[in-house]
Amino acid sequence: MQLELDVRLDPTLGCGQAHRWRKMESGCWQGVVKNEVVTLCQTDDGFSYTGSNERDLKEYFRADDDLGMIVSEISAADPVVADLSSRCPGLRILKQPEWECLATYVLATNVNVKRIAKMVESVCDHYGTDLGERRAFPTPGQILDGKDTISECRLGFREPRFIQLAEGVENGSIDLESMKDMPYEKLTLALQEINGVGPKVADCVALFGFGKLESFPVDVRIQKCVERMYGVTGNYKTVSAFGRGKFGAYAGYAQEFLYHSDFI
Question: How far is CA 110 from the centre of its chain?
Fold first, then answer.
């Protein structure tokens, strides 16, 4: 099957937004979307796919985003981003399931992208539903059913907070459904009430899970980039506020181009 969409798979799936995509020797990508093992192969006007359906893939790749308009708007705000976006066409923000995104980013603290992917895959291999070639991301209940063996996943200091997160979502004290309608500021504050969620994780989850495109996550790379390119220094709040103020409603897209600045 074929989906026509303004997207380039390499920068979109390889930039660390999501951590379950693998690039195959063929150049295609394999991942899991809504409990389906999916293979995507780049074409001139989108991608071919197996293992999923058009509706779910359109949702996952935010097909309703007017990428041309978004890039035009953030490019008008800054010549640096204008240049970066011209050299990295088709980069899209993904819309990941809220639970999976939150659980993943609770693991993604003080560790590199490769290690994050390894931990996430270990959790899936231990607790997720068998899909054949891969396993699904586990539900909170599946994790709690096997929590006595959580040490086998080698999560380190993240282990107790990961179990606590699963317990909170399972018993309803962490209500992800109610968070969907929260505006950005209220959502990020609510997320930071969860053990293991600081400002950066909250911004990542708001952007990649809840679709708050005004989010501007700041890691060490972005902090150095903003200082080098704009002369802005300070704590997380200062740098993130600068990004949101400069790029407005689509600051998250600008952040992704800046994140790629060392590679394009």
Answer: 16
Q: What is the pLDDT of residue 16?
A: 86
Q: Which domains does the chain have, with CATH numbers?
A: 2-64 (3.30.310.40), 98-208 (1.10.340.30)
Rounded Cα–Cα distance for residues 126 and 129 (Å) = 9
What is the number of residues in the chain? Answer: 264
Residues 6+ apart with CB under 8 A from 25: none
**Residue 90 pLDDT > 70:** yes
Interatomic CA distance for residues 38 and 48, integer angstroms = 10
The tens digit of pLDDT for each residue in 187-238 reads: 999 999 999 999 999 999 999 999 999 999 999 999 999 999 999 999 999 9
- Mean pLDDT across the stretch 8-25? 93
Per-residue pLDDT of 104-160, as tens digits, reads 999 998 888 889 999 999 999 999 999 999 999 999 999 999 999 999 999 999 999
